[in-house]
Amino acid sequence: MTAFGKWTAPGAAPDDCLARNDWICGAYLATRRELLQDAVLQHLQLTAAAVALALVVAVPLAVAARTARWAAGPVLALTTILYTIPSLAMFSLLLPVYGLSASLVIAGLVLYSLTLLVRNILAGLRAVPEETRQAARGLGYGPLRLLLTVELPLALPAAMAGLRIATVSAISLVTIGAIVGYGGLGNLIYAGMNTYFKAQVLTASVLCVVIAVAADLLLLLVQRLATPWARHQGGAA
Amino acid sequence: MTTLSQAWTWLTSADNWSGEGGITQRLTEHIVLTAVCLVLSCLIALPVALVLGHLGRGGTLAVNIANAGRAVPTFAVLVLLLLSPIGRYGAWPTVIALVLFAVPPLLTNAYVGMRGVDRDIVAAARGMGMTGGQLLRGVELPLALPLILTGVRIAAVQLVATATIAALAGGGGLGRIITAGFNLADTPQVVAGAVLVAALALLVEGVCVLAERFAPAGVRRAGD
Q1: Which CATH class is domain A26-227?
Q2: pLDDT category, B71, cuts 50, 70, 90?
Q3: Is residue A203 a contact partner of residue A36, using CB atoms and an 8 Å limit?
Q4: Nearest C-alpha of chain B: how many angstroms from A11?
Q5: Domain ABC transmembrane type-1, which positions (chain B) (predicted)?
């Protein structure tokens, strides 16, 4: 592991940060721009697809668990068990179903996000005051209209809190997808590890955190815009 | 279904359990790694959380650290440590990465537990002339214990699950069975490894739940 010493032979590789294998390297950013862009794009696509799919599955599950009392126990137990399975193991368990594909990583992330989303949406729905429900019924709201225009909007803050945690976790979990070649920035970290390429590992790691923080702030902004009534009560949970 | 039955065959064959890199060795490595990291994380996180909770300061700090911790991929931390000078010291990069990962849930739960203690009880204890240390040990800690132990349980289960990542960086543990299976394109072995890790995680969760159930009455009071 001494391939990148300080000393370079006269007339050999130029003395730039790539040759010295520095952690921080402008030349790396300049020369690998497309590689980084592709990795970031894959990272975003995998996360977005997984979180969107998880939401599509979680909302009906949470509503079912809220409406049919008997469904709550099994739904919560199942999603909790899914959450206990390690990410590396989850990807491998799904391997026979999906093969080495992006769907494999997305499916794994969906199963992870489910626990957080179902729990939070259910908590939000349960926190809707009974008086509010009765008032809406008194105004002639049917069950569907009650759900869509009263209960779900009121459950939004709790649901968004879950969505933020699920999104941030998914962004960091995508990196493990590198084991099947679909890990977004994780691919660069994995490759950088094997070739001892410090600038690549640090750059990709920092980008992961930047994406996670940006996504969290974006969702916080969406939550503020979507729940104007909660704004004067001071911020999010 | 054939994959599952092949995985079962792999799991039940005695050859795979013994010897260098066998299931027994990987399982032991996994348990030792998890236990060491859990103890270290508790030693780091709990005193800080207890003192901060007692003083009633740094709550936002604790929550922010926990949230920021979730944003940093453990795999990235592991690889960064591996390429740094620490990488020369055997299992230390793995241990540090896992400890950094386990500290946030411990910190948050312990802090929230300490702050959740009824303020009237604290005021009454103060009125009886208890010093800060006595209050912390004799009143706040016992009342916060259920939530603190929940934090330890969450951290333990997550550590079992996350310790598999060590294998991606050439470390030991059950993750090695999975990565080796990947490299050999041996799906039954991959599935068998995954089942082992999941089973261990569920086992740890179960043991923690049982421990809470059969703990002294004071500990299980506010069980969830």
Answers
A1: mainly alpha
A2: confident
A3: yes
A4: 28
A5: 27-208
